[in-house]
């Protein structure tokens, strides 16, 4: 079931991205030859106007074929009324014949569509009741059904070895025979000290079963820890207009955080300090989708929005074969006042695509290793 849900999410996110390119290209009068659902081999197709809508066997996203994306393509010929060869009347509708600012908008439109989708999904989440930290104040609306939730668990930490996972709700804590009625991050931190084991009660997902575990704090350079980050999370259910306002605010906040996190990851990788433990590929994503699905539909919406933001930001990187790389080539052409050599641009993009595929294979292999 997790695999099917992941494929559906990936299909929607990529199709929304490609629809951004499709919509803006059409608006600027550029001919779009094909909008593909999934990747070849082709199962069947439908022709509507000048665009072929194809349905393909591999359901991992989609693509658009925009007329004249490759400036190396020779001019197409057509038959005139007298049977002579004439230049295709659509020649001026080629992508690379359009102004640079129009090309830039078309390339950026896919990324923008993913941001819009994330905003929409978060807004729907707020209307349905989105899990929200009590630290995020929403004017005139209180967060209800508050619990102390485990946000993340460090690998091989005492909490991880005891079985705690992100998303678990801590509802009971006891040390030295003393329990507390009010559970907060400060409560847990006050009990993480040298001494006896800490007894923690928690519930997971929709399962009402009460689980009890014992955790012995670990001495880490003079500081005692159990290896979790936590926050008090409740449900915020908002009216439509406020939901869209808060959805936009949350999208902006997560986008900033994602940019900072990606910058840190790339910086550490260039300094030789990077680790694949911070990166999750398709196999790992299937597991995360399964966890989100168990917690409920709203969690799945939020997860999809997060992936949409990540997809947008990664596509903006100035790396060959990505939208950001093509935007970077446009900037170079604008500065030098002439078009880049198509053979060089195509070669660089091909190399970049190969590197991305190799990186994906490496990350996927690492995901599989972590399963064992």
Task: Throw out a few tags for this protein.
372 residues; alpha+beta; Pdz3 Domain; 2 domains; seven-stranded antiparallel beta sheet; two-stranded antiparallel sheet; 9 helices; 13 strands; elongated
Structure, explained:
The protein has 372 residues and is α+β, with helices and mostly antiparallel strands. It has two domains: 2-120 and 298-370, no CATH class; 144-236, PDZ domain (Pdz3 Domain, Roll), CATH 2.30.42.10. The protein has nine helices and 13 strands. It has helices at 2-27, 100-128, 158-162, 185-191, 240-270, 282-295, 297-315, 323-336, 342-370, and strands spanning 32-48, 51-66, 77-79, 85-87, 130-133, 144-153, 169-175, 178-179, 198-204, 207-215, 218-220, 223-225, 228-236. The strands form four sheets. Strands 5, 6, 7, 8, 9, 10 and 13 form a seven-stranded antiparallel beta sheet that branches. Strands 1-2 form a two-stranded antiparallel ribbon. A two-stranded antiparallel ribbon has the order 3-4. Strand 7 (169-175) and strand 8 (178-179) form a beta hairpin. Helix 1 packs across helix 2 (100-128). The chain is elongated, with a radius of gyration of 26 Å. The model has no long low-confidence stretch (mean pLDDT 79). Belongs to the peptidase M50B family. Keywords: Hydrolase, Membrane, Metal-binding, Metalloprotease, Protease, Transmembrane, Transmembrane helix, Zinc.
